[in-house]
Model the fold of this input.
Amino acid sequence: MAGRLDHVNIAAPDAGGLARKLTEALGMEVVKETVVEEQGVKVIVLDAGGSHLEITEPLGPDTPVGRFLSKKGPGLHHIAISVPDIEAALAKMKAAGIALIDETPKIGAMGNRIAFAHPKSFGGVLIEIVEGEAD
Ligand code: CO
Done:
């Protein structure tokens, strides 16, 4: 379904510590832990019933999420919306004047093709589009 909330992402200096709180206090379950070297992050993914909660921890201060943490501190990093065809979605967004961070798709933590749009185009929130459905 286009427009489904695929995941919400929180940037944290200690992803494991936050994931433990979510599992112990809210009963959430970790479904994946991975390192995405090219984005400089460790990612822990929790099941959120048809969507996911992702926690990203930077691998170092000189990474996009490392710089986000030093500038803004821990907190909401982005929201991801699913689209059936990412090329078509990018073309439509471009035509609508949306500022894109990624003009072409890259591979996300769950192996899907993803791209980011600039927060200035979406109410100050960093929006990721994800091709296909979450499992
Ligand atoms: Co994401």
